[in-house]
Write a structure and sequence with these properties.
The protein is of the alpha/beta class and 254 residues long. A hairpin with a 2-residue loop joins strand 1 and strand 2. It starts with 6 loop residues before the first helix and ends in an 18-residue tail after the last strand.
């Protein structure tokens, strides 16, 4: 159903639902025109949009940590048959619902965290996991759950990166006495934020590039494209089998 609101009415609703982290154009009204990252996330999207299929007809999409729904809207713009957005923040979900209303598209919105994705009870052709992992206390668990429960083909992943952009050659095993490999700038590192980073108490772990790529592989996602500095396009593959006690417990994967 097409919504008919004046620009002033839209502006008032945008203000009442604010502050916004996604800058979205709602019929000429920008939701975050003074964003500290500029026209975000549109500027980032333009840098990697070419790496995703332009025609998503018949495809299902799950947007984890959908925020105000910018990427979910872009997936609908490419013709995705079904888009589900989840977020743990009800204020972001309210923003996403309003943005979808103004754009006159259907997006299913659920209040769930990434740790709850099993509750969806289905797999999706494309999973978006953008700008979430560094807000999690348990980032590898999140990737494991995505692999186990909701990803069927493509994962589009983005994370803030800090530290070296180098990729060190890492052996399959080291002797217990080996310490030099860990001193290499390109060794996978996940930097722990005990208090705050950028005044944000939800920033917990910030990886370097080598760490992101290693974590994706470890969770069963083969990197097929790296179209933007922070963005990876991956395909779901069988997760490597490890002998250690890890979550989820080993057994048949549905």
């Amino acid at each position: 159903m097409t919504v008919s609101l004046s620009r002033e009415e839209i502006r008032r609703r945008v203000e009442s639902l604010g502050p916004w982290f996604h800058n979205i154009d709602l019929d000429g009204v920008k939701t975050a025109p003074d964003h500290f990252l500029g026209d975000y996330p549109a500027a980032k999207w333009r840098a990697f949009a070419h790496a995703l299929p332009r025609d998503l007809a018949g495809r299902s999409v799950l947007d984890i940590g959908c925020n105000a729904g910018f990427y979910a809207l872009e997936m609908k713009r490419r013709g995705a048959q079904r888009v589900v957005g989840i977020d743990s923040d009800p204020e972001y979900l309210a923003q996403a619902a309003f943005a979808a209303e103004i754009h006159d598209v259907s997006i299913e919105l659920r209040r769930l965290s990434v740790y709850d994705v099993a509750a969806l009870g289905e797999r999706f052709d494309i999973v978006l996991f953008m700008g979430v992992v560094y807000h999690l206390r348990h980032p590898l668990l999140a990737l494991d759950l995505i692999h186990r429960h909701v990803a069927s083909d493509l994962l589009v992943f983005q994370s803030m990166l800090r530290g070296s952009r180098e990729i060190a050659t890492v052996a399959g095993d080291y002797e217990f006495t080996a310490s030099a490999p860990f001193e290499q700038p390109g060794y996978p590192r996940l930097h722990f934020v005990e208090q705050r980073y950028a005044k944000d108490p939800t920033n917990w772990w910030i990886p370097n590039r080598a760490c992101v790529e290693a974590m994706l592989r470890s969770a069963g996602f083969a990197i097929t494209d790296h179209p933007e500095d922070e963005v990876y396009v991956c395909r779901r593959v069988d997760a490597p089998v490890r002998d250690a006690a890890v979550y989820p417990a080993r057994g048949p994967v549905p």
